[in-house]
Amino acid sequence: MRKTIALCCALAALGGLPAALSAAETATYDLLFRSGTLDDLPRDQALIYHREVSNSLTPDAATRDTGDIALSFSDGVAEQADLQFRQDGKHRNLGSFPASVGNPIIMYFYETVVRDMAETAGGSPFYIRNRVKDALTRQWAETPGTASYDGQTVATRSVTLRPFAEDPNRAAMRGFGDLALTVTMSDAVPGWYLSLEAHVPDAEADTPVYHSDLRFQTLEPQS
Questions:
Q1: Which residues of the chain have pLDDT under 70?
Q2: How far apart are CA 205 and CA 133, in angstroms?
Q3: pLDDT of residue 14
């Protein structure tokens, strides 16, 4: 229960920017945290994502964190989007968020990478989270493309953030100074997000230091 509360607080902290920023400063944030992405989805269906994690520095943590994420809907004071982690027939509730705001899977993605980086590199999650939030106020190139989804080729938009590229502490980050966060989006994909990837290359090996791939799989009847 405490882990769920801590995650909800962290996601809330990540999912907002100061109101005084200009439109140019919020352009990347507005695209990535697009509102209304859950509005037209059937409420009797759950969105299923699969998260695959590799971590050469803490392989046990990668095994722990690989599994499915289900986003389902529930009614309360306001309609909620509920996130649940599933692995080996077990499940763990991750939190509930207002469905009217947008798809919380992107906040879950960023926060799990913040946690993984802090756990692996030994840094402060508060410092890491703040650098990611700072990166969201910069203008990053938007790359158009295509991808295969549901047997069809669909148009996509991708944005890659490198929050620690110029960080004065990057030498102490055990490779995470080169962290790249790539979000690929499409109007053709339920919930807007096709894939959310975090990658830390290893200059001395073919396999990365760290890789997290969170990818939309399917809609399934809500249990």
A1: 1-22, 77
A2: 30
A3: 55
